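Customer escalation, tier 2.

The customer says the design service returned an amino acid string that "doesn't look like it belongs to this structure." They asked us to rerun it and document both sides in this ticket. The original structure tokens are below, unchanged.
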């Protein structure tokens, strides 16, 4: 399990979004409140952010826990963005560590993150999933994690002409086909810098937490609300969410 965070709105310092709130993503990396399958998120972290100067997002990933990376606070106070996607990682047993397995994953303008797991991924799901990938999805895989293979399914669905929200649904449905009686937790979010899509779902299990907030001309998504703002609401289960930049 992981904790994820996304923001789409006026340009804001990364530190304001990820470090400063009372229950920030940094705090969630060592003291999550609503994570059922692990104690903390100490297996690395990553942040993708968008700027007017680049087609693809910039990205910073580290195998250190967010609280232990001395470089990130300095960068986060100097960098601002109107679209941010971030993840603090608790690695699924047997999946492996390293930067290649650290989210968010990026291809072209799209960045993607997943909170959850696929049961028996390496033992029974990984091989048929990889065999079903097209060239675009297969080329997107650099590591060994279940999350990156979900990203590959998302890339293939986009390449086939699906809308971003429908591509997330396609990921879930392909997992349902492959898993049989196995379980999956699927809290998914992706963005191209202008549109933010998400899906909160599960297979043979209870869906992971995911919350949405809209206020002050911005959208937020988070596994756990980082603050006490009253606008936070749970994302409905199995209902794909599409959020557009607010004019």
């Amino acid at each position: 399990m992981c904790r994820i965070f996304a923001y789409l709105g006026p340009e804001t310092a990364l530190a304001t979004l990820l470090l400063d709130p009372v229950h920030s993503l940094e705090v969630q990396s060592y003291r999550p409140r609503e994570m059922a399958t692990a104690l903390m998120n100490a297996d690395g972290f990553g942040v993708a952010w968008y700027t007017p100067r680049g087609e693809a997002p910039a990205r910073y990933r580290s195998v250190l826990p967010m609280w232990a990376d001395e470089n990130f606070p300095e960068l986060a106070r100097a960098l601002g963005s109107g679209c941010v996607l971030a993840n603090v990682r608790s690695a699924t047993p047997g999946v492996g560590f390293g930067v290649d397995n650290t989210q968010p994953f990026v291809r072209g303008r799209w960045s993607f993150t997943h909170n959850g797991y696929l049961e028996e991924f390496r033992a029974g799901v990984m091989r048929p999933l990889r065999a079903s990938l097209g060239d675009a999805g297969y080329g997107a895989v650099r590591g060994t994690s279940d999350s990156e293979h979900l990203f590959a399914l998302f890339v293939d669905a986009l390449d086939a002409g699906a809308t971003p929200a429908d591509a997330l649904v396609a990921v879930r449905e392909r997992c349902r086909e492959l898993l049989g009686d196995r379980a999956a937790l699927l809290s998914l979010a992706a963005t191209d810098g202008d549109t933010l899509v998400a899906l909160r779902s599960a297979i043979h299990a209870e869906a992971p937490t995911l919350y949405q907030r809209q206020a002050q001309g911005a959208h937020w998504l988070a596994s756990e609300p980082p603050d006490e703002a009253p606008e936070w609401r749970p994302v409905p289960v199995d209902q794909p969410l599409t959020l557009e930049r607010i004019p």
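Tier 2 assessment: The sequence is consistent with the input. Residues 74 and 110 are 26 Å apart (CA to CA). The two ends are 34 Å apart (CA to CA). Sent an explanation to the customer and offered a walkthrough call.
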